[in-house]
TrEMBL record:
<feature type="domain" description="U3 small nucleolar RNA-associated protein 6 homolog C-terminal">
    <location>
        <begin position="127"/>
        <end position="302"/>
    </location>
</feature>
<dbReference type="InterPro" id="IPR056907">
    <property type="entry name" value="UTP6_C"/>
</dbReference>
<dbReference type="Pfam" id="PF24892">
    <property type="entry name" value="UTP6_C"/>
</dbReference>
<dbReference type="InterPro" id="IPR003107">
    <property type="entry name" value="HAT"/>
</dbReference>
<dbReference type="GO" id="GO:0030515">
    <property type="term" value="F:snoRNA binding"/>
</dbReference>
<dbReference type="InterPro" id="IPR011990">
    <property type="entry name" value="TPR-like_helical_dom_sf"/>
</dbReference>
<dbReference type="GO" id="GO:0032040">
    <property type="term" value="C:small-subunit processome"/>
</dbReference>
<protein>
    <recommendedName>
        <fullName>U3 small nucleolar RNA-associated protein 6 homolog C-terminal domain-containing protein</fullName>
    </recommendedName>
</protein>
<dbReference type="GO" id="GO:0000462">
    <property type="term" value="P:maturation of SSU-rRNA from tricistronic rRNA transcript (SSU-rRNA, 5.8S rRNA, LSU-rRNA)"/>
</dbReference>
<dbReference type="InterPro" id="IPR013949">
    <property type="entry name" value="Utp6"/>
</dbReference>
<dbReference type="GO" id="GO:0034388">
    <property type="term" value="C:Pwp2p-containing subcomplex of 90S preribosome"/>
</dbReference>
<comment type="similarity">
    <text>Belongs to the UTP6 family.</text>
</comment>
Amino acid sequence: MDFESEFLKTYRILKWDEFTVLNNDRISINEKITNKVITKHELLLQFKAELSLLNACKHKIKDELEQGLDVIDTQVLVLLSKRVIELFDHMHVLFSIDEKLLFYFINFCQDNVSYIHVDQLDILLDAVLCTENNQKIWIRLLKLYLELNSFDKLMTVFQEGVRSLKKNSLPLWKIIIRFMQIRRPDMIETLFEEGSNISYENISFYIRVKYLKWCLQYKDIDATRNLFNELKKLKPPCYKLYLIMMAIESETSDFELLTVRKLYDEACILFGTDNIEVWLDYIRFEQTDGSPKLMESIYTRGLWKLEPNLKNTFIEEYNNIKREFMNSLGKEVIVIDD
């Protein structure tokens, strides 16, 4: 008697006649697969039957362990998981796999990751690649591979996901960055460099900022300045990168007014055509930390640089800043009634 039948008999998961029917169904399914006369419906029914049996065995083992009882060979869970995977493989090879079944199978793998070897799932990546570019499926697949302890295969899934999702792959980047920071800190800078140069702005901008913050946290201010000088050369330029660097320089113990002023000047040149805030931030900076007498000249430059449709809003915002500044100096606007 093999260990599967012994387990099922010992714990009365299936009656003997039920186990006989199951074995006959397995033989029939295998013959139909070999002869290429199987239907997707038949495969799906067997897939569900094996999965139901696996879950019944897992629940029985859990009950036995909770009662403090010894459990005989639990390799039955490995065997049943293998059968479920093989049936999925056949469905993928012989028929198309819809997204609902993909989600279902990935959930199965996550629930049974202890009984699965990563090499058994090579066809799963192929199945996902054959579907439409579904971001949720790629996220679930990548999270599954995080649990399978194969760095090479994890990176393969990540790279294929990025290629498939393109500009919609940012969630995959976020997942893999968190993983690298904890599990592979030796590789994180390489990942940041790659992501900073990717052609999709929503991704490259996000990663450049993460890279700069990481550098400040794990290296020092000089390394951060050097990195910023490299990142700012990348096209297209990233406004938030400048904001972060301005904040960093403003908070350093060796604060240099000219350094921050230079950053604002560069940002206004790069982004000042359609960005009111960069001018207003520069004006506020000079008001609080620099030279208030420069506020007017920055305002004039902004009026010259901004798109015509933004100028009225800019004028209004500047007047608000100027009014607040005058009030802070204790000056009042005197209104003379006629």
